[in-house]
Hints:
Blueprint: H1 17-20, H2 27-52, H3 58-83, H4 98-108, H5 113-138, H6 145-172, H7 179-193, H8 234-238, H9 245-258, H10 261-272, H11 278-304, H12 317-325, H13 328-341, H14 345-357, H15 361-384, H16 392-405, H17 410-415, H18 425-436, H19 442-445
Helix pairs in contact: 2-3, 2-4, 2-5, 2-10, 3-6, 3-11, 4-5, 4-7, 5-6, 9-11, 9-14, 10-11, 10-12, 10-13, 11-15, 13-15, 13-16, 14-15
Amino acid sequence: MMIDYEKLPKLAGLCTLEEAAKPGLPLEECVRRLKRFQYSFKRLHGIFIGRLTSEPIYELKTAFAHHAYLCAEHATALRQRISEMPEPPLGLEDVPHPALEVFFDEILCAPDTNQFVYAVYLEAVGTLIEEIGEYERETHPLTDAPSRRLLKFAQIELAEMYQFGMKAVTALGDSWPTRDWDEHVMGPLLKVAKTAPSPDAELPRRYSTKPFTYDSVPQRDERFADPWNQAINPEAFLYSDEFQPRDKVLMMLFKRLREIDVPEMMASILAETTGKPWAYTRDMTRQLWDEARHAMMGEVGFFALGVDWTKARISWNWSYRLNTECTPLERHGVLFFIEQGLMPKTGKRYEFEVASESGIPLAATIQDFDWADEVLHSQIGREWYVKQFGSLQEALAFGDVAWTKITSNWTTVKDRGLTQHENWWTELYREACTANGWTIDPGAAAYDTSYEGRRADLKSLSTD
């Protein structure tokens, strides 16, 4: 057999011999630029986390969770790559250029959603795409193949983020008060950031003249009507023997969508906790993104059943009170305590079994992956929360006490006129039955057990 060696791809298909025969960037320059990219991803992560809780628009809130996670993953990969290159000390926490720091500060402090979305996606993400593209063209395709591989995947996801931003800009409206900001602040900052750092350089600021203050109070858009409503206790319905798996699935979808409050709360933990290693940030952001995914699973489940999810009353009581009444450690304690309660057979396994018995295949898929995620979250909690205590029992007890601290305010919010705890379930349930040709169960339709004096693990509490 004759083999045409000349036609075989050279250099493992990375490039041609002619391309590899040209010199690329010096290693020192490669490290400098990789540190710049790592810093940019890290700042973008912090910016998305910093704006997530106070962003009212649901689609943006969930996107910020996703994009924060992507940025954390790419920053992690770059940190590992930089550590492989002979440049000690690594300086991974250093600011690569003062103008770049101010650039990201300005985005973080943008005064409204429109300017923020425009700046973070079209300017910051767009600039990072361009700079990484320059690096890929200029670095050596063979000697620096490990860096190019990481950046190839980063470019794919950055492009997706940019496209999301373009669509969001269009959806939010055509009036963008950014031209003057672009011309006199953002543009000059990017121009200076491409030069050698100089202590004498004038760096314009507009919105970041005052340091950013994290806003821990959750915000929701107008589709989240009656956010203090606690009229329906889905856990009591789910664990009752009176109701069919089909109807329990509808209640589980409500529980999934309600999980939008978890990223709102976890963002506050990340924003207000200092002194942790980067691995903590990466792991906690993965969980934050999973929780946002769970909320979207609920949204998809309602859509598939032909149900308008906005008829459900998605409360913010949990994230609001945790963020405003508890310390970051107490919030983490509540989160971990709840996760541990989901591990026994009466937790996520039970939800999956109910979904499997319901005759709704999508519900089984949702609960299967939801269960898998919670197993990971329990491990994250053991690594980053439990180790701060003397034992698992102490960690659980701390979380139990913290959770009791913020429930129940059923009477208080009603007395203040914040909600009348109207029963929204009956209408939503009847809509689902009509849309899917289900026979209405009178008992399920009449369900009205509330959260008065009880919390989600069905533990009874003294009423407020």
